[in-house]
Amino acid sequence: MQDVNITIVDREGVIHEVEAPTDMAMNLMEVVRSYELAPEGSIGICGGMAMCASCQCYIESDTVLPEIESDEEAMLAEAFFVKENSRLGCQIPITENLEGLRVRLAPEEI
Amino acid sequence: MIKTDILIIGAGPTGLFTVFEAGLLKLKCHIIDALPQPGGQLAELYPKKPIYDIPGFPEIKAGVLVDNLMEQIKAFQPGFTLGEVAQDIDKQEDGSFIVTTNKGTKHHAPIIAIAGGLGSFEPRKPPIQNLAQFEDKGVQYMIRNPENFEGKSVVIAGGGDSALDWSIYLADIADEVTLVHRRNEFRGALESVDRVKELKDLGKIKLITPAEIVDVYGSDHLEGVMIRKNNNPEEDFALSTDYFIPLFGLSPKLGPIAKWGLEIEKNAIKVDNTLDYQTNIPGIYAIGDVNTYPGKLKLILCGFHEATLMCQSAYQRIHPNKRYVMKYTTVGGVTGFDGSKKEAPKAVVKSID
């Protein structure tokens, strides 16, 4: 098991190159929280159940990601600031396939 | 005025269990919650989902855990103010507090336990410029008096159950109902989706998809909305309407509590975790997901622990001169305020001939 390198652009536009572990059953939202790239309480509010859109991000690389399942699809249909490349970070598990992934965090809903 | 010993803000698992621990100490509780039913997130967001880390329950559905807690605290007869948000707090000369809700209900207690979780659930507001300007002047996030819509035109936005259900309901009352949703597909109970289709075919509901509201306009009162079809600004068109009702579900916000003078850090209330989870204001405690301290974990089981210690501290504040030692329920049983008594069956002493 190896760490993967991921680029995360935070809500202020600051670029962070981070290493994410593939052996901790983590998802992308949790990686953002573990590096504190967004204020606690403003991301991952529902805890990772695809029931809020606080971990919405835009995928900026052509990395192949797991398909969107119905919970995520339903939440994205109701979320704000949604674009073609929107995903919920909590629904993207960290795997070796994510090497080189680049994402940008969506703005916080007020 | 509602009077109680411990006023609990938040009817989630931590708030509910507080009633039990307080009850063992003969302290009465009253709970305020913004939602119409007890259970907090568990009831509102994921009642059917399993939880695996409640000690002693290898697996329990969130809704069942709430039911069990309600059963466990029943004998302690908690009062409830549901569907109201704790808004203002007034410290009295004797150190007690009066908490008033957004609907004006007043509660008086010497101890406040904030078990507010992620905050009170408020409607999610779409990021539309000028939207706030027309709030209660044509823009509303929930429907209180449906009769107000008689003979009016209404635009509803959203694609979930509440958008569907209210469109159906208002189709009979309002003059014109337009439902706008970002996708062509709706997510709701099958019969609601079918009914909306019927009403659309009957010309009672106008359906605009895929589209979203990008602007609102008017002078004193809302006069119309700007609708963007197919995510293409060139297809923007104005639609005059008396009302615009965005229905995008609820999200938790710390809300008015944030203005009570409590120390806030990381969207949570700072407490003294070395002792009793008291905040910087003596007599006000914060327990469960709403608090923060070094090493904090937002887990239900941690909330239960915090509630237990908090009640011991509350007891000492209310009865500074009474001596007390904690007693196991197995030893002391549970005596409810309703006169019920649960206790371990006594062993018999009898010789066998």
TrEMBL record, chain A:
It comes from Psychroflexus planctonicus. The keyword Iron-sulfur applies. Keywords: 2Fe-2S, Iron, Iron-sulfur, Metal-binding. Belongs to the adrenodoxin/putidaredoxin family. InterPro entries: 2Fe-2S_ferredoxin-like_sf, 2Fe-2S_ferredoxin-type, Adrenodoxin-like, Beta-grasp_dom_sf. Its cofactor is [2Fe-2S] cluster. This is Ferredoxin. The keyword Chaperone does not apply. Residues 4-109 form the 2Fe-2S ferredoxin-type domain.
